[in-house]
Design a protein that fits this description.
homodimer; 10 helices; mainly alpha; DNA-binding
DNA sequence: AACTGAAGTGACCACACTGGTCAAAAGAAC
DNA sequence: GTTCTTTTGACCAGTGTGGTCACTTCAGTT
Protein backbone atom coordinates (compact mmCIF):
# COMPACT_ATOMS: atom_id res chain seq x y z
CA UNK A 1 0.00 0.00 0.00
CA UNK A 2 1.13 3.53 -0.72
CA UNK A 3 -0.29 5.58 2.13
CA UNK A 4 0.70 3.78 5.32
CA UNK A 5 -0.97 6.48 7.39
CA UNK A 6 -4.53 5.97 6.21
CA UNK A 7 -4.50 2.37 7.42
CA UNK A 8 -4.10 3.56 10.99
CA UNK A 9 -6.75 3.83 13.65
CA UNK A 10 -8.22 7.33 13.35
CA UNK A 11 -7.52 8.35 16.95
CA UNK A 12 -3.88 7.42 16.54
CA UNK A 13 -3.63 9.25 13.22
CA UNK A 14 -5.12 12.44 14.68
CA UNK A 15 -2.77 12.22 17.66
CA UNK A 16 0.25 12.03 15.37
CA UNK A 17 -0.96 14.89 13.17
CA UNK A 18 -1.70 17.10 16.18
CA UNK A 19 1.64 16.35 17.80
CA UNK A 20 3.52 17.15 14.59
CA UNK A 21 1.49 20.31 13.97
CA UNK A 22 2.19 21.52 17.49
CA UNK A 23 5.93 20.97 17.18
CA UNK A 24 6.13 22.57 13.73
CA UNK A 25 4.03 25.53 14.84
CA UNK A 26 6.21 26.21 17.89
CA UNK A 27 9.51 25.97 16.04
CA UNK A 28 10.97 26.59 12.63
CA UNK A 29 11.20 23.55 10.37
CA UNK A 30 14.89 23.07 11.09
CA UNK A 31 14.52 23.18 14.87
CA UNK A 32 11.33 21.15 15.11
CA UNK A 33 12.28 17.82 16.65
CA UNK A 34 11.05 14.47 15.40
CA UNK A 35 11.93 13.07 18.82
CA UNK A 36 9.50 15.45 20.48
CA UNK A 37 6.84 14.61 17.91
CA UNK A 38 6.99 10.85 18.52
CA UNK A 39 7.15 11.41 22.27
CA UNK A 40 3.96 13.49 22.36
CA UNK A 41 2.25 11.28 19.80
CA UNK A 42 3.01 8.20 21.87
CA UNK A 43 4.60 6.24 19.05
CA UNK A 44 8.13 5.06 18.37
CA UNK A 45 10.70 6.76 16.21
CA UNK A 46 10.66 3.85 13.78
CA UNK A 47 6.93 4.14 13.23
CA UNK A 48 7.07 7.82 12.33
CA UNK A 49 9.71 7.13 9.71
CA UNK A 50 7.69 4.18 8.54
CA UNK A 51 4.52 6.27 7.98
CA UNK A 52 6.43 9.18 6.45
CA UNK A 53 9.81 8.55 4.89
CA UNK A 54 11.48 11.68 6.25
CA UNK A 55 10.98 14.84 8.28
CA UNK A 56 10.56 16.76 5.05
CA UNK A 57 7.87 14.43 3.72
CA UNK A 58 6.04 14.72 7.04
CA UNK A 59 6.09 18.50 6.80
CA UNK A 60 4.85 18.46 3.20
CA UNK A 61 2.07 16.09 4.19
CA UNK A 62 0.94 18.45 6.96
CA UNK A 63 1.08 21.39 4.59
CA UNK A 64 -1.35 20.01 2.03
CA UNK A 65 -3.36 18.29 4.75
CA UNK A 66 -4.10 21.49 6.66
CA UNK A 67 -4.97 23.48 3.56
CA UNK A 68 -7.19 20.71 2.21
CA UNK A 69 -8.87 20.13 5.57
CA UNK A 70 -10.18 23.69 5.84
CA UNK A 71 -11.03 24.08 2.18
CA UNK A 72 -12.96 20.79 2.16
CA UNK A 73 -14.88 21.65 5.32
CA UNK A 74 -15.91 25.05 3.97
CA UNK A 75 -16.90 23.71 0.55
CA UNK A 76 -18.94 20.86 2.01
CA UNK A 77 -20.65 22.58 4.92
CA UNK A 78 -21.17 26.15 3.74
CA UNK A 79 -24.69 27.18 2.79
CA UNK A 80 -23.89 28.63 -0.64
CA UNK A 81 -27.42 30.02 -1.06
CA UNK A 82 -27.30 32.31 2.01
CA UNK A 83 -27.40 35.87 0.59
CA UNK A 84 -26.72 37.67 3.91
CA UNK A 85 -22.94 38.11 4.24
CA UNK A 86 -23.19 38.30 8.03
CA UNK A 87 -24.96 34.97 8.23
CA UNK A 88 -22.45 33.50 5.84
CA UNK A 89 -19.52 34.74 7.92
CA UNK A 90 -21.10 33.23 11.01
CA UNK A 91 -21.42 29.99 9.09
CA UNK A 92 -17.70 30.09 8.27
CA UNK A 93 -16.74 30.87 11.88
CA UNK A 94 -18.63 27.80 13.09
CA UNK A 95 -17.10 25.60 10.40
CA UNK A 96 -13.56 26.73 11.18
CA UNK A 97 -14.14 26.31 14.90
CA UNK A 98 -15.26 22.76 14.26
CA UNK A 99 -12.09 21.94 12.33
CA UNK A 100 -9.99 23.52 15.08
CA UNK A 101 -11.64 21.39 17.73
CA UNK A 102 -10.26 18.36 15.90
CA UNK A 103 -6.88 19.94 15.07
CA UNK A 104 -6.16 22.65 17.68
CA UNK A 105 -2.83 23.69 16.18
CA UNK A 106 -4.02 24.00 12.60
CA UNK A 107 -4.31 27.78 12.59
CA UNK A 108 -0.91 28.36 14.19
CA UNK A 109 0.65 25.84 11.83
CA UNK A 110 -0.94 27.54 8.83
CA UNK A 111 0.64 30.81 9.91
CA UNK A 112 4.04 29.11 9.80
CA UNK A 113 3.40 28.13 6.19
CA UNK A 114 3.10 31.85 5.39
CA UNK A 115 6.70 32.39 6.46
CA UNK A 116 8.09 30.51 3.49
CA UNK A 117 5.30 30.97 0.97
CA UNK A 118 3.91 34.22 -0.37
CA UNK A 119 0.19 34.91 -0.05
CA UNK A 120 -0.16 34.33 -3.78
CA UNK A 121 1.51 30.92 -3.49
CA UNK A 122 -0.92 29.98 -0.76
CA UNK A 123 -3.93 31.20 -2.69
CA UNK A 124 -2.74 29.15 -5.64
CA UNK A 125 -2.66 26.01 -3.50
CA UNK A 126 -6.15 26.71 -2.17
CA UNK A 127 -7.48 27.35 -5.65
CA UNK A 128 -5.98 24.09 -6.79
CA UNK A 129 -8.52 22.35 -4.58
CA UNK A 130 -11.39 24.74 -5.22
CA UNK A 131 -11.08 27.21 -8.10
CA UNK A 132 -11.84 30.80 -7.09
CA UNK A 133 -12.66 29.74 -3.54
CA UNK A 134 -11.94 33.19 -2.11
CA UNK A 135 -14.26 35.06 -4.44
CA UNK A 136 -16.94 32.43 -4.16
CA UNK A 137 -16.99 32.25 -0.36
CA UNK A 138 -17.42 35.97 0.17
CA UNK A 139 -19.15 37.10 -3.02
CA UNK A 140 -21.13 34.30 -4.69
CA UNK A 141 -24.87 34.84 -4.25
CA UNK A 142 -24.29 37.60 -1.69
CA UNK A 143 -26.93 40.33 -1.73
CA UNK A 144 -24.95 43.55 -1.47
CA UNK A 145 -28.11 45.64 -1.66
CA UNK A 146 -28.53 44.83 2.04
CA UNK A 147 -25.77 47.36 2.75
CA UNK A 148 -26.45 51.04 3.26
CA UNK A 149 -26.06 53.15 0.14
CA UNK A 150 -22.95 55.24 -0.47
CA UNK A 151 -20.70 53.11 1.65
CA UNK A 152 -17.45 51.36 0.77
CA UNK A 153 -18.23 47.67 0.37
CA UNK A 154 -14.60 46.51 0.45
CA UNK A 155 -13.90 48.22 3.75
CA UNK A 156 -17.11 46.93 5.34
CA UNK A 157 -16.36 43.40 4.21
CA UNK A 158 -12.90 43.58 5.76
CA UNK A 159 -14.22 45.02 9.01
CA UNK A 160 -16.71 42.16 9.25
CA UNK A 161 -14.21 39.44 8.37
CA UNK A 162 -11.52 40.86 10.66
CA UNK A 163 -13.93 41.18 13.56
CA UNK A 164 -14.73 37.50 13.53
CA UNK A 165 -11.15 36.45 12.86
CA UNK A 166 -10.04 38.38 15.95
CA UNK A 167 -12.87 36.89 17.97
CA UNK A 168 -11.78 33.43 16.86
CA UNK A 169 -8.16 34.12 17.80
CA UNK A 170 -9.24 35.30 21.24
CA UNK A 171 -11.30 32.16 21.81
CA UNK A 172 -8.44 29.97 20.60
CA UNK A 173 -6.06 31.64 23.06
CA UNK A 174 -8.50 31.14 25.90
CA UNK A 175 -8.99 27.50 24.97
CA UNK A 176 -5.24 26.93 24.71
CA UNK A 177 -4.69 28.40 28.17
CA UNK A 178 -7.06 25.80 29.58
CA UNK A 179 -10.40 27.58 29.73
CA UNK A 180 -13.44 25.45 28.96
CA UNK A 181 -15.46 27.45 26.44
CA UNK A 182 -18.98 26.36 25.56
CA UNK A 183 -19.98 26.44 21.91
CA UNK A 184 -23.23 28.17 22.90
CA UNK A 185 -21.35 31.07 24.48
CA UNK A 186 -19.42 31.57 21.25
CA UNK A 187 -22.57 31.38 19.16
CA UNK A 188 -24.21 33.99 21.39
CA UNK A 189 -21.30 36.37 21.16
CA UNK A 190 -21.14 35.96 17.39
CA UNK A 191 -24.84 36.83 17.23
CA UNK A 192 -24.32 39.91 19.39
CA UNK A 193 -21.59 41.21 17.07
CA UNK A 194 -23.68 40.39 14.01
CA UNK A 195 -26.46 42.51 15.45
CA UNK A 196 -24.14 45.45 16.07
CA UNK A 197 -22.66 45.22 12.57
CA UNK A 198 -26.12 44.93 11.08
CA UNK A 199 -27.27 48.08 12.86
CA UNK A 200 -24.17 49.89 11.66
CA UNK A 201 -23.89 48.88 8.05
CA UNK A 202 -27.22 47.49 6.83
CA UNK A 203 -30.13 49.60 5.55
CA UNK B 1 29.03 50.54 35.54
CA UNK B 2 26.03 48.30 35.90
CA UNK B 3 24.34 48.43 32.52
CA UNK B 4 27.04 47.68 29.96
CA UNK B 5 24.51 47.92 27.16
CA UNK B 6 23.57 51.57 27.57
CA UNK B 7 27.16 52.65 26.97
CA UNK B 8 26.98 51.30 23.43
CA UNK B 9 26.49 53.23 20.24
CA UNK B 10 22.72 53.37 19.64
CA UNK B 11 22.82 51.78 16.18
CA UNK B 12 24.77 48.84 17.52
CA UNK B 13 22.43 48.46 20.49
CA UNK B 14 19.36 48.46 18.27
CA UNK B 15 20.98 45.91 15.95
CA UNK B 16 21.60 43.56 18.87
CA UNK B 17 18.09 43.97 20.25
CA UNK B 18 16.53 43.40 16.84
CA UNK B 19 18.64 40.36 16.15
CA UNK B 20 17.78 38.83 19.52
CA UNK B 21 14.09 39.66 19.18
CA UNK B 22 14.00 38.04 15.76
CA UNK B 23 15.64 34.83 16.97
CA UNK B 24 13.45 34.61 20.08
CA UNK B 25 10.31 35.31 18.08
CA UNK B 26 11.06 32.60 15.53
CA UNK B 27 11.93 29.94 18.09
CA UNK B 28 11.05 28.90 21.60
CA UNK B 29 13.40 30.12 24.31
CA UNK B 30 15.19 26.78 24.51
CA UNK B 31 15.81 26.50 20.76
CA UNK B 32 16.72 30.13 20.15
CA UNK B 33 20.44 30.23 19.40
CA UNK B 34 22.84 32.75 20.87
CA UNK B 35 25.19 31.90 17.99
CA UNK B 36 22.59 33.03 15.47
CA UNK B 37 21.95 36.17 17.50
CA UNK B 38 25.58 37.30 17.54
CA UNK B 39 25.96 36.36 13.87
CA UNK B 40 23.04 38.54 12.74
CA UNK B 41 23.95 41.32 15.18
CA UNK B 42 27.50 41.41 13.83
CA UNK B 43 29.16 41.08 17.22
CA UNK B 44 31.22 38.37 18.85
CA UNK B 45 30.02 35.73 21.24
CA UNK B 46 32.13 37.22 23.99
CA UNK B 47 30.52 40.62 23.65
CA UNK B 48 27.00 39.29 23.97
CA UNK B 49 27.90 37.52 27.19
CA UNK B 50 29.67 40.65 28.34
CA UNK B 51 26.59 42.87 27.84
CA UNK B 52 24.20 40.28 29.27
CA UNK B 53 25.51 37.63 31.62
CA UNK B 54 23.49 34.76 30.21
CA UNK B 55 20.89 33.76 27.64
CA UNK B 56 18.24 33.95 30.34
CA UNK B 57 19.23 37.49 31.39
CA UNK B 58 19.13 38.54 27.74
CA UNK B 59 15.61 37.18 27.40
CA UNK B 60 14.45 38.88 30.57
CA UNK B 61 15.94 42.14 29.37
CA UNK B 62 14.03 41.90 26.09
CA UNK B 63 10.84 41.09 27.93
CA UNK B 64 10.74 44.23 30.06
CA UNK B 65 12.30 46.27 27.25
CA UNK B 66 9.56 45.50 24.75
CA UNK B 67 6.75 46.08 27.21
CA UNK B 68 8.26 49.32 28.44
CA UNK B 69 9.05 50.55 24.93
CA UNK B 70 5.41 50.44 23.80
CA UNK B 71 3.95 51.65 27.08
CA UNK B 72 6.36 54.60 27.17
CA UNK B 73 5.69 55.58 23.57
CA UNK B 74 1.93 55.52 24.09
CA UNK B 75 2.07 57.45 27.34
CA UNK B 76 4.37 60.10 25.94
CA UNK B 77 2.93 60.62 22.47
CA UNK B 78 -0.78 60.01 22.91
CA UNK B 79 -3.06 63.05 22.85
CA UNK B 80 -4.93 62.35 26.07
CA UNK B 81 -7.42 65.16 25.45
CA UNK B 82 -8.79 63.77 22.15
CA UNK B 83 -12.42 62.81 22.92
CA UNK B 84 -13.08 61.03 19.58
CA UNK B 85 -12.24 57.35 20.06
CA UNK B 86 -11.59 56.91 16.33
CA UNK B 87 -9.04 59.70 16.27
CA UNK B 88 -7.46 58.28 19.39
CA UNK B 89 -7.20 54.81 17.86
CA UNK B 90 -5.59 56.30 14.78
CA UNK B 91 -3.16 58.05 17.09
CA UNK B 92 -2.28 54.71 18.70
CA UNK B 93 -1.84 52.98 15.33
CA UNK B 94 0.65 55.61 14.24
CA UNK B 95 2.54 55.43 17.53
CA UNK B 96 2.78 51.64 17.39
CA UNK B 97 3.85 51.72 13.77
CA UNK B 98 6.60 54.13 14.70
CA UNK B 99 7.91 51.80 17.41
CA UNK B 100 7.74 48.88 14.99
CA UNK B 101 9.79 50.72 12.41
CA UNK B 102 12.58 50.85 14.98
CA UNK B 103 11.99 47.31 16.28
CA UNK B 104 10.33 45.27 13.51
CA UNK B 105 10.09 42.05 15.54
CA UNK B 106 8.62 43.61 18.66
CA UNK B 107 5.04 42.52 18.00
CA UNK B 108 5.96 38.94 17.13
CA UNK B 109 8.25 38.77 20.15
CA UNK B 110 5.50 40.10 22.41
CA UNK B 111 3.24 37.30 21.22
CA UNK B 112 5.86 34.81 22.36
CA UNK B 113 5.75 36.31 25.84
CA UNK B 114 2.05 35.38 25.93
CA UNK B 115 2.95 31.70 25.64
CA UNK B 116 4.46 31.56 29.10
CA UNK B 117 2.53 34.35 30.82
CA UNK B 118 -1.20 34.66 31.29
CA UNK B 119 -2.95 37.77 30.03
CA UNK B 120 -3.38 38.88 33.64
CA UNK B 121 0.36 38.54 34.28
CA UNK B 122 1.06 40.69 31.25
CA UNK B 123 -1.44 43.33 32.23
CA UNK B 124 0.15 43.43 35.66
CA UNK B 125 3.54 44.14 34.10
CA UNK B 126 2.09 46.91 31.93
CA UNK B 127 0.29 48.43 34.85
CA UNK B 128 3.51 48.42 36.82
CA UNK B 129 4.80 51.01 34.38
CA UNK B 130 1.54 52.89 33.96
CA UNK B 131 -1.30 52.18 36.39
CA UNK B 132 -4.63 51.45 34.66
CA UNK B 133 -3.08 52.02 31.24
CA UNK B 134 -5.69 49.91 29.47
CA UNK B 135 -8.69 51.75 30.87
CA UNK B 136 -7.05 55.12 30.41
CA UNK B 137 -6.03 54.64 26.80
CA UNK B 138 -9.45 53.63 25.57
CA UNK B 139 -11.77 55.32 28.06
CA UNK B 140 -10.23 58.42 29.68
CA UNK B 141 -11.80 61.62 28.30
CA UNK B 142 -13.56 59.70 25.53
CA UNK B 143 -16.91 61.19 24.51
CA UNK B 144 -19.18 58.18 24.20
CA UNK B 145 -22.13 60.36 23.30
CA UNK B 146 -20.69 60.46 19.79
CA UNK B 147 -21.97 56.93 19.31
CA UNK B 148 -25.45 56.16 18.06
CA UNK B 149 -28.00 55.56 20.77
CA UNK B 150 -29.09 52.05 21.73
CA UNK B 151 -25.90 50.40 20.58
CA UNK B 152 -23.47 48.17 22.47
CA UNK B 153 -20.42 50.26 23.30
CA UNK B 154 -18.20 47.32 24.24
CA UNK B 155 -18.80 45.55 20.95
CA UNK B 156 -18.25 48.69 18.90
CA UNK B 157 -15.01 49.42 20.72
CA UNK B 158 -13.75 45.93 20.02
CA UNK B 159 -14.75 46.10 16.36
CA UNK B 160 -12.83 49.36 16.01
CA UNK B 161 -9.75 48.17 17.87
CA UNK B 162 -9.68 44.83 16.09
CA UNK B 163 -10.07 46.47 12.69
CA UNK B 164 -6.94 48.50 13.13
CA UNK B 165 -5.00 45.70 14.76
CA UNK B 166 -5.74 43.49 11.76
CA UNK B 167 -4.77 46.30 9.41
CA UNK B 168 -1.52 46.68 11.29
CA UNK B 169 -0.80 42.97 11.10
CA UNK B 170 -1.42 42.99 7.36
CA UNK B 171 0.95 45.90 6.85
CA UNK B 172 3.58 44.24 9.01
CA UNK B 173 3.36 41.06 6.94
CA UNK B 174 3.70 43.01 3.74
CA UNK B 175 6.68 44.92 5.09
CA UNK B 176 8.34 41.72 6.29
CA UNK B 177 7.95 40.12 2.87
CA UNK B 178 9.92 42.99 1.41
CA UNK B 179 7.28 45.42 0.20
CA UNK B 180 8.09 49.09 0.56
CA UNK B 181 5.04 50.66 2.21
CA UNK B 182 4.74 54.43 2.42
CA UNK B 183 3.52 55.92 5.67
CA UNK B 184 1.13 58.13 3.70
CA UNK B 185 -0.57 55.12 2.15
CA UNK B 186 -1.17 53.68 5.60
CA UNK B 187 -2.48 56.98 6.91
CA UNK B 188 -4.88 57.21 3.97
CA UNK B 189 -6.20 53.72 4.48
CA UNK B 190 -6.65 54.35 8.20
CA UNK B 191 -8.65 57.47 7.36
CA UNK B 192 -10.82 55.54 4.90
CA UNK B 193 -11.69 52.95 7.54
CA UNK B 194 -12.31 55.64 10.13
CA UNK B 195 -14.79 57.24 7.74
CA UNK B 196 -16.62 53.95 7.23
CA UNK B 197 -16.74 53.23 10.95
CA UNK B 198 -17.91 56.77 11.64
CA UNK B 199 -20.77 56.43 9.16
CA UNK B 200 -21.74 53.12 10.71
CA UNK B 201 -21.56 53.81 14.40
CA UNK B 202 -21.61 57.57 15.04
CA UNK B 203 -24.75 59.68 15.26
C1' DA C 1 55.93 56.75 21.54
C1' DA C 2 55.00 54.31 25.47
C1' DC C 3 51.77 52.88 28.72
C1' DT C 4 47.24 51.48 30.53
C1' DG C 5 42.63 49.94 31.38
C1' DA C 6 38.55 48.86 28.98
C1' DA C 7 36.15 46.65 25.09
C1' DG C 8 35.86 43.12 21.91
C1' DT C 9 37.16 38.64 19.90
C1' DG C 10 36.71 33.71 18.46
C1' DA C 11 38.85 29.14 19.14
C1' DC C 12 37.64 25.96 22.35
C1' DC C 13 34.94 22.96 25.64
C1' DA C 14 31.99 19.12 27.35
C1' DC C 15 27.80 17.63 26.12
C1' DA C 16 22.81 17.50 24.61
C1' DC C 17 20.33 16.42 20.89
C1' DT C 18 19.76 15.59 15.82
C1' DG C 19 17.36 12.77 11.65
C1' DG C 20 17.50 8.40 10.37
C1' DT C 21 18.54 3.05 10.56
C1' DC C 22 17.70 -1.72 11.30
C1' DA C 23 17.92 -6.12 13.81
C1' DA C 24 14.95 -7.83 16.82
C1' DA C 25 10.39 -8.22 19.15
C1' DA C 26 5.44 -8.28 19.06
C1' DG C 27 1.13 -8.97 16.83
C1' DA C 28 -2.11 -10.77 13.38
C1' DA C 29 -4.03 -14.28 10.53
C1' DC C 30 -4.30 -18.75 9.20
C1' DG D 1 3.51 -23.60 14.27
C1' DT D 2 4.38 -20.71 10.34
C1' DT D 3 4.39 -16.55 7.79
C1' DC D 4 3.79 -11.91 7.12
C1' DT D 5 3.18 -7.08 8.79
C1' DT D 6 3.82 -3.63 12.15
C1' DT D 7 6.23 -1.60 15.90
C1' DT D 8 10.06 -0.80 18.71
C1' DG D 9 14.10 1.72 20.70
C1' DA D 10 19.18 1.30 21.17
C1' DC D 11 22.38 3.10 18.30
C1' DC D 12 24.99 6.14 14.98
C1' DA D 13 27.93 9.89 13.17
C1' DG D 14 27.38 14.51 13.10
C1' DT D 15 25.80 19.20 14.32
C1' DG D 16 25.08 22.88 17.27
C1' DT D 17 24.79 24.25 22.26
C1' DG D 18 25.63 28.07 26.16
C1' DG D 19 29.42 29.78 28.09
C1' DT D 20 34.67 30.76 28.94
C1' DC D 21 38.95 33.11 28.81
C1' DA D 22 43.57 34.06 27.07
C1' DC D 23 44.31 37.03 23.79
C1' DT D 24 44.09 41.29 20.54
C1' DT D 25 42.49 45.85 19.49
C1' DC D 26 41.25 50.32 20.70
C1' DA D 27 40.97 54.96 22.98
C1' DG D 28 42.84 58.08 26.03
C1' DT D 29 46.64 60.06 28.77
C1' DT D 30 51.11 61.32 29.70
Amino acid sequence: MKDRLSNLDEKKRIKIINSAMEEFSRNTYQKASTNKIVEKAGISKGSLFNYFQSKEKLYEYLETFSIREIADAVVKKLDWEEPDILQRIKNIVIIKLDVCRKYPHLIEFSKRIYENKSIDDLKAIYEEFVPNIYEKVYYENIDFSLFKEDIEINEIMNIMIWTFEKMGENYLNRIKSGERVKIDAISNEVDRYIEVLRKGFYR
